Amino acid sequence: MAEETESTKTEPLKTAEEEFKKLEITEEEESELKLETSDHVTFMVEASIAMKFGAVQQYLEVSPAASASATAIPLHNVASRELILILEYYRMHDWVDAGERDLKEFDERFLKDLNYEELKELLLAANYLNVEKLFNFLTKSIANIIRNKDVEFVRTFFGIDNDYTPEEEAAYREENAWAGVKFV
Amino acid sequence: MSDVMGPDLISDLPQSIIESILIQLPISDAVRTSILSSKWRYKWASITQLVFDDNCVPFSYDKEVFEKSIVKFITRVLFLHQGPIHKFQIKTTRLQSCPEIDQWILFLSRNDIKELVIGLGDVEFFRIPSSLFNCRKLVQLELARCEVDLPHSFKGFMCLRSLNLHQVLISPDAVESLISRCPLLESLSVTYSDNLDLTIRAPNLKYLNLEGEFKDICLDTPLLIEISFAMYMTDDIAEHFEQSSNCNFVEFLGSVPNLEKLVGLIYFTKYLSIGIDSVRLPIMYNNLENIELYQVNFEDTKEILVIIRLITSSPNLKQLLISGSSNIPVVVDTPDMGFWEKECLSDSTLNKLQIVKLSEMGGWINEIEFIKYLLGRSPVLETFSIFPCVFDMENNLKILIELVKCRRASARAEVVFLHE
């Protein structure tokens, strides 16, 4: 029973992906840019999406010829693993027919499928590429993990090593009790 | 994300990323991260956006205790903060004027603050200290429930692009000179205001939002592209209009040739209708693509004239949204058919109009005539939706019968009759 609900939930996403593939075929004329990741994998990316990357924009401002030529635009600090995720995110969010609910479901799944290290790498890549929407989504998601949680939970979740001695910690808690900041 | 704990990957992220995370948190949570570990002790202290509200300190029913604790919290945050502060926002109804607020603003004015949002108290209005006018780097300023006097020495906010005054006590002269001393101003919102007479001089203004009681508004804003105006009417203002010989339309919209979107609420259309029948419009709105007018009184042909003048002066109009004043005719109205015959004489067509939505339609003969007018002159019309104001079968049937009779200039037009 539980599985059934799960599959109905993901259905709009599948259709979204299928629709997107169709779009790719029908709109062959859309111009593409060649991007090369740090692990030397080249990607052909729709210009409409690639131009959302601040780093690509900046590169083209300096060397406008790259948009027409066959030379790849190098992305020094992004590995192919992250670029695939970034493209997946942007293709979904760029897809005109995606409704608010589809996007919300997609975002939730997207986040759930990331392990902690991938999340961090993706955050760094998004920061380097200067892709605002994804970067905001990721930082907001991390903020939501911290929000209203007690200190111990946040430490455990992010693997933060508490290097305060118990005396120091007690003192800082005391010190920070100013203005009623509460520590649960 | 899996919940399995790994090595610490977050503490060594670049400060700019940490800051992006921390500014998404309520400030009390951001401050709390200083307990995580020694690396985190001061990470929060350099965030460039400080946003305070009623939730930044634990709630207390004792008003005085609560107020003291907010003041203490904010003072402490400012005291511990290091580096530039780009944004400072305080929105709380539980804080009244107090000397500390003046000190904060003085402190911020020395820190090159760019964005300042102040909304305090609900009973007493907060008097803005003169130090605010020394925040020369301000780009965005938002004030609510405040009292503002411009100091004589005020030279202007040379960088200000956005100004939002909500329920602010300020004299019309002061508003005018405040606005005219912000040469880069692009966005202006004056709401909950009773500035009766106002001339807005802003050479770079693009977005204007007005709401309140106004008698005479004059716009000297050549670059304006969007207006939203909710106009309230009092007996005093109504009387003023009865005696007025001005054409409000020309004064208000006569020198905004770049307009792209116009939204008028409540008595806006009525306001524009004063003096409309005595003049020809001196201007064309070649960029105007969207018009929304709400609470239009279809009993008043002068208000209809406002709409017709507007749409026939906007050759690129794509979308028109009009709502009526939500009642169905109780008596059979005797419309001024002469008006329609005269207006229908002109052969102007609405060559770009694609979407029309008419809501709160009661079935007045003038409404039907207006529908005929639009359908007959819009060759590329795609959707024409009509929402009746009540679901009265008999009345709606009457509208529908008239509707099917209408000639349509567009063969593609889909006419939809719906209940909202």
From TrEMBL, chain A:
Keywords, alphabetical: Ubl conjugation pathway
Domain SKP1 component dimerisation: 133-179
Any Gene Ontology biological process: ubiquitin-dependent protein catabolic process
Pathway: Protein modification; protein ubiquitination
UniProt KW Transferase keyword: no
Pfam families per record: Skp1, Skp1_POZ
SKP1 component POZ domain boundaries: 33-93
SUPFAM superfamilies membership: POZ domain (SSF54695), Skp1 dimerisation domain-like (SSF81382)
Family: Belongs to the SKP1 family.
Annotated protein name in UniProt: SKP1-like protein 14
Organism of origin: Mucuna pruriens (Velvet bean)
Gene: ASK14
TrEMBL record, chain B:
Pfam families: F-box, FBD, LRR_At5g56370
Residue span(s) of domain FBD: 343-418
Transmembrane spans: none
InterPro entries registered for this protein in UniProt: F-box-like_dom_sf (IPR036047), F-box_dom (IPR001810), FBD (IPR006566), LRR_dom_sf (IPR032675), LRR_FXL15/At3g58940/PEG3-like (IPR055411)
UniProt-listed SUPFAM superfamilies: F-box domain, RNI-like
PANTHER family: F-BOX DOMAIN-CONTAINING PROTEIN (PTHR31639:SF237), F-BOX PROTEIN-LIKE (PTHR31639)
Record-given protein name: F-box/FBD/LRR-repeat protein
Organism: Mucuna pruriens (Velvet bean)
Top-level taxonomy: Eukaryota, Viridiplantae, Streptophyta, Embryophyta, Tracheophyta
